[in-house]
Write a structure and sequence with these properties.
This protein is α+β, with helices and mostly antiparallel strands and about 325 residues long. It contains nine helices and 14 strands. It is globular, with a radius of gyration of 21 Å.
């Protein structure tokens, strides 16, 4: 049994069972969405991992397995000096899938991403990486995909290699990673996959360099510009945040009224807690230095209910 090093993302779709009861087609639609995202990811990584002047032949090893509302996506990373690039794109892929679940199906997820030894075949999957990813999912508590410290440490180590890598990692992580009050770092799914022009021709053109040779020459001559955030992406972010605001507000209001039934109240508070966390996450993204869309923030209100002796929460 041969184990290999994999980046592993494991997540659980919250509210999937209720959604499935409403529409049995949702499973097929989710799988199709994931498949399309991974095809795009493979195409991008094939180009990145192929040396100049060599034909693009081999697709990166990205595998996924789905069981009910549990999703496992694995990427067999490379070990060369450029491995930081596919790692970042893998993280952005997972965030994009998380975003697709919200945008297309109004579903939120909870999970984790780590790296470690994994044994993976068509029939079987197991290993420390899977165990660690499942534990991360359990400890995430809220609807977020937590990034393991080993991934963060790897990203930081890439930044020490050279200034080009540092600028690439800093830019990529700026709109991708969010640190919470419990110090856990999770993915920002309200982001645009291709928002960054990572290697711009110059500071006035929103165009990438056209070849490795051009990039190497610019770096050698000290003319390579730092990554640029495409302002056109802000239109997409605004639309997502607006939709996200409506979704979260509706969910908070749905579970806002307290109950005298102990069993129902316990269930309600458990669900409400997740959506109150989403309020905090949403407002944090609205205040993000790249976006600054405070007009889309959610305002919480609370009112004491004398019948249930508890506070009812609402938005407005």
């Amino acid at each position: 049994m041969d184990f290999s090093e994999y980046y592993v993302a494991y997540f659980d779709v919250l509210g999937y069972k209720d959604a499935f009861k409403k529409s049995e087609d949702i499973s097929a639609q989710l799988i199709k969405s994931i498949g399309s995202s991974i095809v795009l990811m493979k195409a991008i990584l094939s180009i990145i991992n192929t040396p100049p002047d060599e034909p693009i032949e081999k697709n990166p090893e990205i595998e996924y397995k789905i069981f009910s509302d549990n999703f496992l996506i694995c990427y067999k990373g490379t070990t060369d000096s450029l491995s930081a690039i596919p790692l970042v794109y893998f993280l952005r892929l997972i965030a994009s899938i998380q975003r697709v679940f919200f945008e297309g199906f109004q579903l939120i997820v909870r999970g984790g991403i780590t790296k470690g030894p994994l044994y993976l075949t068509k029939e079987f999957v197991g290993g420390k990486a899977l165990i660690d990813a499942v534990e991360l999912e359990s400890s995430a508590v809220y609807p977020r995909i937590v990034v393991d410290d080993c991934i963060l440490n790897e990203l930081n180590s890439f930044k020490t290699q050279n200034d080009l890598f540092k600028s690439f990692i800093d830019a990529s992580c700026l709109d991708l990673l969010v640190k919470d009050t419990d110090d856990k770092v999770s993915l920002n799914y309200i982001m645009s996959y291709d928002a960054w022009i990572m290697y711009p021709k110059n500071e006035s053109q929103l165009k990438q360099v056209e070849s490795f040779e051009e990039l190497e020459k610019n770096v050698r001559e000290g003319r390579q510009s730092k990554p640029i955030y495409n302002p056109e992406s802000l239109k997409t972010i605004y639309a997502i945040l607006k939709k996200h605001k409506k979704f979260v507000e509706e969910k908070v209001n749905e579970f806002s009224q307290s109950s005298n039934d102990v069993k129902e109240e316990t269930k309600r508070l458990k669900i409400l807690k997740k959506y109150l966390w989403l309020v905090s996450f949403h407002n944090k993204i609205c205040d993000h230095e790249l976006y600054r869309m405070s007009e889309l923030k959610i305002n919480l209100k609370s009112e004491f209910n004398e019948q249930t002796l508890a506070f009812d929460v609402s938005v407005g």
